[in-house]
Structures are given as structure tokens and as C-alpha cells.
Amino acid sequence: MSTQATYAEVVEGVRATIAAYTQALDDGRTDDVVATFCPDGGCDIPGMGTHAGHDALRAAYTKWKPRRPQRHLVVNTLVTDWNDDEARAISDVIFLLQGDAGWAIQVVGRYHDTLHHAGGTWRFHQ
After folding, report:
1. CA 125 from centroid of its chain's CA atoms
2. For 87, which of 52, 82, 105, 112 could close a Cys bridge (C-beta 3.0–4.6 Å)?
3. What is the mean pLDDT of the chain?
4. CB of 105 within 8 A of CB of 120?
């Protein structure tokens, strides 16, 4: 019996992690956002800095808690490279913010993610 993951299994795991991250981010659930990262994981967000490790991530995401309803719509996720332990993915993101006049697009961008697989779960490394 092979223990090697299939492409479909890797893609589904990566997409599930991205969805868990964005939903927790939009809900302001900082501890759940941090839980989607490896203990030594980090993020580099243009204009918002580089943050590595759970403590630094928690401090950053606490400052970024939403003050009004928001949604990160992540689409076109493509896993570009993978093995049983690591995957790289590129996704497009549309950030919407609800204001007095309704929902409006604030940012359109692209995520470049590296995820590691451990304990049956994919987590962001970078």
C-alpha cells in the first residue's frame, strides 16, 4: 500500500487550509488564523510587513482584526509543485469591504504560498 499522496489529495488539503485561513481572517478569529501556520511559518504582505513565528503572527493579525464586515475571495488556486511534505500554490484574491454604500472591492492581488504537511494537515510555511 502506497503512502504517497495524490495530486487531488494535496490540492484539496491546500484549498481547505486557504479557506480556513481566509474565513478566520474575515471573522477576526486570530488564534484560528495563526493555527493555519507552521510554528516557524510566516507571512510577507506588501505594505504590512514580514512576520515569522506564531507570536509575531498573532501580534500582527490581532492588529488587523476587521472593524467592519470583510471578505477575502480566493479563486484560481493552482498547486504548482508538490510532494508528500510540501506544496506551492498560487491563488488570486479579491478583498471586499462593506461600507455605508455596500460592498466594494478594495484590493485585487495574488497569493504565493508554500505549505508543509504534518500530522495530516497542511499549514502555511510562507
Report:
1. 10
2. 82
3. 94
4. no
- Res 48: pLDDT: 86
Single pTM value for the model: 0.92
Distance of CA 44 to the CA centre of its chain: 12
pLDDT, tens digit (0-9, with 9 covering 90-100), for 95-106: 999 999 999 999
* Dist. CA 79–CA 115, nearest whole Å: 10
Q: Strand 49-52 to strand 86-99: parallel, antiparallel, or no bridges (unpaired)?
A: unpaired
CB atoms closer than 10 angstroms to residue 41: 20
The number of CA neighbours under 13 Å toward the Cβ of 101 is 2
**Residue range 104-125: mean pLDDT, rounded:** 95
Cell of 114: 508554500
For 65-77, what is each residue's pLDDT tens digit? 999 999 999 999 9
Looking at this protein, which amino acid is placed at residue 84? D
Q: Alpha helix (H) ranges present in the chain?
A: 7-27, 30-34, 54-63
Q: Quick one: how many helices (H) and strands (E) in the chain? A: 3, 6
Task: Give the helix, strand, coil percentages of the chain, each rounded to 5.
Answer: 30, 45, 25
The C-alpha cell of 43 is what? 507571512
